[in-house]
Amino acid sequence: MATPHVSGIVALLKHNHRHWLPTVIKSAIMTTTYTKDQDGNPIKDEYDGKDAGAFTMGSGHVDPVEANDPGGPIVCSQVQAIEPEQLNYPSISVSLGAKSVSKTVNRTVTNVGDANSVYTLKVDNPEGVDVDVSAISLTFTNEGGKQDFTVTLSIQGVPPKADKVSEGQLVWDSVKYFVGSPIVVIFT
């Protein structure tokens, strides 16, 4: 049942923001989701009752009100062939293992929120992974302003067994807006 709901939200966003490209709409929806229920507990997987993860619920539960005013969705850039993790998506997914103990991804964000906004970084590290972000805050002087940053993900300590999946999140917090990007690390 997610498809008709998300399609309706897309129609609402396109109506309210006629200049937004499909990539901006997708980013606004993904970065404004939530992963906690009304009591502040992790959303559960309906199938097995365990905490739902990125492969169960994607970025999280869609919030159309927040998506309508996201503060800073990420817009995909036109670029030549690149590695999948370098796509300027509002999420980060990498594989780490013995052959690749660290990866750095580049992201560019565009402010669609208020001018003169400052977003402060909060990181929820995936288990077994150190996350290093090149900026601890992003400052925008106008709507439409862009900021670049890098995220380096490195195995912390002894690498977990192959096929283990670890999840975390980056959150840019301006007090008015919370812009979240899920992180998924697959160990190889």
Can you describe this structure?
It is a single chain. With 188 residues, the chain is of the alpha+beta class. It is 18% helix and 32% strand. The protein has a single domain, classed as Immunoglobulin-like. It has four helices and eight strands. Strand 7 and strand 8 form a beta hairpin. The N and C termini lie far apart (33 Å). The mean pLDDT is 89.
**How far is the N terminus from the C terminus?**
33 Å
Summarize the main sheet.
5 strands, mixed
| Overall geometric form | globular
The radius of gyration computed from the alpha-carbon positions, rounded to a whole number of angstroms, is 17 Å
The average pLDDT value, as a whole number, equals: 89
Task: Please state the structural category.
Answer: alpha+beta
Please state roughly what percent of the residues sit in beta strands, choosing from under 5%, 5-15%, 15-25%, 25-35%, 35-45% or over 45%: 25-35%
Low-pLDDT sequence parts? none
Q: If you consult CATH, what is the topology?
A: Immunoglobulin-like
CATH class: Mainly Beta
Number of strands: 8
| Order of neighbouring strands in the sheet with most strands | 1-8-7-3-5
What order do the SSEs take from the amino end to the carboxyl end, as H and E? HHHHEEEEEEEE
Total domain modules: 1
The number of distinct helices, counting runs of at least 4 residues, comes to 4
